[in-house]
Amino acid sequence: MSQAAITSRWKIKTGLNGDFIFKGITVLFAFSILVILFLMIYEMVEQSLPSMAKSGWRFITDQNWDAVQEEFGALPYIYGSVVSSILALALATPLSVGSAIFITEIAPKRLGAVMASLVELLAAIPSVIYGLWGVLVMAPWLQSTVQPFLIDHFGFLPFFQGAPYGVSMLAAIFILMIMVVPIITSISREVLLAVPRSQKEAAIALGATRWEMIRMAVLPYGRSGILGAVILGMGRAIGETMAVTMVIGNTPQISLSLLSPAYTMPSVIANEFAEATSKIHSSALMEIGLILLVVTLIINAMARLLIWSVTRRQSGGGR
Amino acid sequence: MFNFVRNITLSLTIIALTAMAGQASAATLINGAGATFPYPLYSKWFTEYAKVDPTVKFNYQSIGSGGGIKQITAQTVDFGASDKFLGDDELRRVPGRLLHIPTVMGAVVVTYNIPGVGKGLKLTPETLADIYLGKLNKWNDPRIVRDNPTLKLPAKPIIVVHRSDGSGTTSIFTDYLSSVNQQWGSKVGKGSSVKWPVGLGGKGNEGVAGQIKTTQYTIGYVELAYAVENKLPYASLKNKSGVFVEPTIKSTSAAAAGAAKSMPADFRVSLVNQPGRDAYPIVGFTWLLVYQDQKDKAKGKKLVEFLNWELKQGQKMAANILYAPLPANVAKMVEKTVRTIK
């Protein structure tokens, strides 16, 4: 029986063809994701309406969060989330890109493979484990060693003032950094592996040193991919709840000092939602969830703009 | 193709029918949700009760008191559980008459980490409130030294730790501070999460205990059971009768015994700072929330049977896993209320 005969028999029997069914299924799947997203946004807006009506814009400009008096100002949480994740990324990005370059370009093949799988292992550790390690090991170490050092040597800066408690904004930044490094490293590694061999060989043929080869041939090629990795890392950092809650000290305040305790948006939701009995309290927590979503969207959009402008400059510049 | 569809429909029907048949012959399922604090005890009760009456099955989800109140109000569960009682206006919004059934009591313990000072710190309500208000911030403050003449208290700042997650423990603790200190009552108030004047927030008993263990010169509060299991040092508190009392199962039960005389009929009462020489002052009930008028009479009957068992046999198991049982006189009063459930 020829191929055509089989196809036509199938068609006659069912009245459908494979392409049509496949298209239908993919459309259904793609739209179901959109539907879920819109349902979530709708539900969050709906639930936060009472809080919006009560607090208005004061909700994001006020610093006073008092569930007993039913006054809700979320600014310290927004500040805590944005500062902790941006600083964590600022520390994690050079570390991750550096190790990705080492794994792909510099290390002997076998060592690189071992390191890559170890880094991926780090990404698989559950966040509550990071949190426990953070509060039982890292925070005491920060308190006894790192923070006194910072106070003694950099105490004149407003960022390193106050008493060393251990649990602090600094602890949250460190734990987030450790958590996003594996993500950025492993994606950057994939990106760098995709750089064409010919491009690297061409650079070396022109007499470039290894560093020049990496700088001129490898990094420009992988730039947008690495930025994408950083965005994914940002997503994890800003949404991380458990580990941060355990080490940040959970104090809603805005302080320049990295040694003082702070609070983030996911943390306050996780902390207070289960026992929020009054309607306005749970509505306020819903509104924080909504703000978290909006902040994430803004950061994502900014990062996308950055990628777009970088790649445009690149192709416009005519490498 | 059609054959295929028919086969699937047929098998789905068979599966559905078997499932329905299975449900009809299975035990009565009673659903509950709420407080996390009594969860270990409740789950022990439910397993033990399955041996007494195998036709009943309990499904309890420890999602927190807030969730328990929400679900019983929405009538999505057969009973709720909470570490705090509903206010009058909350009760008015509930569809039907909701009863508060006290099951056991919990105590909140003040724990600390002062190098060179082991057990035996003594605190008065005034000093404790001022520490948490941030007004008293040195361990060698004369007011602390006065109550602890034998201890070597260092000239170090006090680091205050509190729970960051909303919890019944915080609710009882802030209730106590409000009742012994006017300024606390007006400035901070009581609730499962409050605006703390000072201090670091730790998540859960383990978060608070972790910070206290690893950080010197700290003070914090945890559940009695947690402090005993983890051998944390705890402070004796001066009670209403002027006696310094250590937190134990006995002194916790004593608080309810002291309150029995003035117990309101609906058991919506705070047990903090009760009279009695042996009464520990930071104590609270935990309640089951049950509708007086049960919609499903058969289920209601099973629930009442369980409550009666819990008030007799169940109470005996409580102390073993570090919950304070109801004193006999209070248990009698609760039994009377349980009898009104129909």
Tell me what the structure shows.
The complex is a heterodimer of chains A (319) and B (342). Chain A has twelve helices and two strands. Chain A has 319 residues and is mostly helical. Chain A folds into two domains: 55 residues; 255 residues, MetI-like (MetI-like fold), CATH 1.10.3720. In chain A, helix 4 packs antiparallel against helix 5. The model of chain A has no long low-confidence stretch (mean pLDDT 88). With 342 residues, chain B is α/β, with parallel strands linked by helices. Chain B is built from 13 helices and eleven strands. In chain B, strand 9 and strand 10 form a beta hairpin. Chains A and B meet through strand 1, helix 6 and helix 11 of A and helix 3, strand 7 and helix 9 of B.
Corresponding CATH architecture of the largest domain in chain A = Orthogonal Bundle
Supply the number of helical segments of chain A.
12
The structure class of chain A reads mainly alpha
What's the arrangement of strands in the largest beta sheet of chain A?
Answer: 1-2
Q: Output the strand order for the largest sheet of chain B.
A: 2-1-3-11-4-8-6-7
Task: Output mean pLDDT of chain A.
Answer: 88
Overall shape of chain B: it is elongated
Largest sheet of chain A: 2 strands, antiparallel
Question: What characteristics describe this protein?
Answer:
heterodimer, A: mainly alpha, 2 domains, two-stranded antiparallel ribbon, 12 helices, 2 strands, globular, B: alpha/beta, 8-stranded mixed beta sheet
Layout of helices and strands, plus pairs?
The complex is a heterodimer of chains A (319) and B (342).
Chain A: H1 3-14, H2 18-55, H3 58-61, E1 65-66, E2 71-72, H4 75-106, H5 109-123, H6 127-154, H7 169-193, H8 197-205, H9 210-239, H10 242-247, H11 265-272, H12 279-317
Antiparallel strand pairs in A: 1-2
Helix pairs in contact in A: 2-12, 4-5, 4-7, 4-9, 5-7, 7-9, 8-9, 9-12, 11-12
Chain B: H1 2-25, E1 28-34, H2 39-52, E2 56-61, H3 65-73, E3 79-82, H4 88-93, E4 98-113, E5 122-123, H5 125-133, H6 142-147, E6 159-163, H7 168-180, H8 182-187, E7 200-202, H9 204-214, E8 218-223, H10 224-229, E9 236-238, E10 244-245, H11 249-259, E11 283-291, H12 297-318, H13 328-339
Parallel strand pairs in B: 1-2, 1-3, 5-9, 6-7, 6-8
Antiparallel strand pairs in B: 3-11, 4-8, 4-11, 9-10
Helix pairs in contact in B: 12-13
